[in-house]
Each structure stands twice: as C-alpha cells, then as structure tokens.
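ESCALATION

Customer reports they have been waiting on this structure for their group meeting. Please prioritize. Original submission:
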Amino acid sequence: MNIQIFGRAKCFDTRKAERWFKERGIRFQSVDLMRKGLSRGEYESVRRAVGSLRALIDERSKEYERLFIAHLAYEADIEQKLLENPGLYRTPIVRNGRQATVGFAPDVWKTWE
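Update from on-call: job pushed to the front of the queue and completed.
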C-alpha cells in the first residue's frame, strides 16, 4: 500500500485517520493540505476515485461562504476555486494509488489491506 493522507493539522477527522493507520502498522505519508494543496493530477485522480466534485467540498468551511461557491454555475469555475483554495476541501483525503476516500472511512480502508 502507498497511503497518502491529505488533511489539516487541526482537523479531528484527519488525526483520527492517521491514528487508524498507525494502530494497524500501516505506513502513510501525511500531507498538509493547507501548505501544499493538491496538484491538478492529484485532484483529478481523487475526483475520479470519489466520483463527484461536490464530495470534495466542505460546505461548512469559511472558504465556501467567502468564495460564494454555492452560486457558481460551472464545474470548471468550482474546480479552479478548489485548486486555488485548499481550505475548501473536505478532509481527510486518503489515497491508495488510484483509490481514494474523502472523510473518515475505515470501512473502505479495510478493503485496501
């Protein structure tokens, strides 16, 4: 397994995901989403895996309101805002190669073992 956990330092679910993998002795790479963001390639891979642009967006974030995401009509505009503002992502984003989840999803991660 090649696990990457994209998250925020103060995110409870991100810390919970890291603890879940540690408890099982599964090595992972932790990526600070607020500092690094997702590259376009990483974003596209995660989006294909989760199937929906909306699944990636944290509608409770301050960025969501500030950037008026709910009022954008075109997916391309929303994608651009998402790539420019990592605070919009719902976390954690956990990748294992071409597989990915958004949020705390141990039932899915168990199938990766």
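Sent to customer with the following note: The two ends are 8 Å apart (CA to CA).
Escalation resolved.
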